[in-house]
Amino acid sequence: MTTSTRGAARTPAVLVLEDGRTFRGRAYGAVGETFGEAVFSTGMTGYQETLTDPSYDRQIVVATAPQIGNTGWNDEDDESGRIWVSGYVVRDPARVPSNWRSRRSLDEELTTQGVVGISGIDTRALTRHLRERGSMRAGIFSGEALAPDAELVRRVQAQPHMKGASLYEEVATKEAYVVPAVGEKKFTVAAIDLGIKGMTPQRMAERGIEVHVLPATATAEDVYAVRPDGVFFSNGPGDPATADGPVALMTAVLERKTPLFGICFGNQILGRALGFGTYKLKYGHRGINQPVQDRTTGKVEVTAHNHGFAVDAPLDEVSETKFGRAEVSHVCLNDDVVEGLQLLDQPAFSVQYHPEAAAGPHDAAYLFDRFTSLMSTVREGQRA
């Protein structure tokens, strides 16, 4: 990525897709060039959470909501220490932000962090194109990075694909840290950071859990050195087929029958550890309005998603694995994609979506309570 920060609002810009389609608009944020996988997010709010979610590493995010930036940028809602998206695409950016917590505009924050974006394009047409053709490599170019379309297409087509990309180590913490329990400490959890969002350990801390966040390269010895009551595997970017290290670590946790909970990338890691495959979705699920059914209760939840890969597991039968019986616990009602797994013979489960979503919805926050109940049950069994 190359960037500049001068005169962005009046600078012509172009979004170029790998299939040759182009969209012309104005620079938004930094001026320069950037590359990534073009994906669309259907959330009407929560853009600050989206932009700072490490799972969006190497992705150019298209906002389907026409107006973006209305609430500006504050100092409280970041999910990590920086913006992770490769680029941002909006139709109608707010001219003046209006929110009591706003400290600066979204445009200013994108510029400060060197994130190249584009505004003023037909995001509806772009979204329909990605929905029909699938997510694809793309580039945003403005200022001195502009060139003839054929040259820009060539640059885009020279970029790596998301399929086969190993990105989780790029975004994970390099050093372990602790998020203390709020109030009385009830449990200790080792959380494997594969691209964790800041709200995730906070949701556990609110339930009396002391969270030890460990790097993606953590070993089983590192995990059990903190004497955990449970182990958590986080969300993260890239192709789960590349995550052999986390799969090996999860296998070690399953072998010890420690209570286990995974979210998003963690769900895909559990799928692989159980012997299921993973595959790339045509355009993925991204947004805060995805309907999912919890098959263990029959309840339908509106949930927050950010994933371009999914687990290939049978929906309507119990599977035999080396860790006992497993079943699909949650399913997306839009397209029958696997949204959750659970073991029936030991304490482990996962979901593909985000129960910690700070911007909402909060229908699935109970899953953290389910994790604490699982740890309580195992602890009581050990005492018996």
Give an overview in words.
By secondary structure, the chain is an alpha/beta fold. Helix content is 23%, strand content 33%. Strands 11, 12, 13, 14, 15, 16, 17, 18, 19, 20 and 21 form an eleven-stranded mixed beta sheet that branches. The protein starts with a strand and ends with a helix. The mean pLDDT is 95.
Question: How many beta strands in the DSSP annotation?
Answer: 21
* Ends distance: 58 Å
Fraction of residues in H or I helices: 10-25%
Helix count, DSSP H or I runs of 4 or more residues:
10
> Largest sheet, described in full?
11 strands, mixed
Structural class: alpha/beta
| Percentage of residues in DSSP E strands | 25-35%
| Contiguous uncertain segments of 5+ residues | none
What does the average pLDDT come to?
Answer: 95
**Cα-atom Rg, whole angstroms?**
21 Å
User: What's the shape?
Assistant: globular
Keywords:
alpha/beta, 11-stranded mixed beta sheet, 21 strands, 33% strand
Briefly say what this structure is.
The protein has helices at residues 47-51, 106-112, 123-133, 149-157, 168-171, 199-205, 220-225, 244-255, 265-273, 366-383; strands at 2-4, 12-17, 22-29, 31-41, 59-63, 67-68, 87-89, 92-93, 116-119, 136-142, 177-179, 187-192, 209-214, 230-233, 260-263, 277-294, 299-312, 319-321, 324-332, 338-343, 348-351. The protein is an alpha/beta fold.
Question: What topology does this entry show?
Answer:
Elements: E1 2-4, E2 12-17, E3 22-29, E4 31-41, H1 47-51, E5 59-63, E6 67-68, E7 87-89, E8 92-93, H2 106-112, E9 116-119, H3 123-133, E10 136-142, H4 149-157, H5 168-171, E11 177-179, E12 187-192, H6 199-205, E13 209-214, H7 220-225, E14 230-233, H8 244-255, E15 260-263, H9 265-273, E16 277-294, E17 299-312, E18 319-321, E19 324-332, E20 338-343, E21 348-351, H10 366-383
Parallel strand pairs: 4-5, 5-7, 6-8, 7-9, 12-13, 12-14, 14-15, 15-21
Antiparallel strand pairs: 1-4, 2-3, 2-10, 3-9, 4-10, 11-13, 16-17, 16-19, 18-19, 19-20, 20-21
